[in-house]
Amino acid sequence: MTSSPSSETADLKRRYQWQCRRGASEVEVVLYAYLDRFFEDDTPERRAAFGRLLECHDVDMLDWFTGHGEPEDPELREFVAGMLRRVAETD
């Protein structure tokens, strides 16, 4: 028996919640904002990009999130830029 896509997404979100715990609270704020507000309704490709982002070092993410650098990988660079725009939007 296979899980439904929504069940798989919910399981993935629970795993990612633990991975969002970081040493830098500034990084946590951005990661949790995306996870809580956009993750479940996002495309599978963006959810996969978020998983790749969680594999990155805190210091790199802090630079990216504060505009002091950007990922070398073009797909990750595009995801981070889009994520930051979306997270910065107010409801």
UniProtKB/TrEMBL annotation:
Compartment annotation: Cytoplasm
Domain of life: Bacteria
Pfam families in the record: Sdh5
Signal peptide: none
Keyword terms: Chaperone, Cytoplasm
Family: Belongs to the SdhE FAD assembly factor family.
Name of protein: FAD assembly factor SdhE
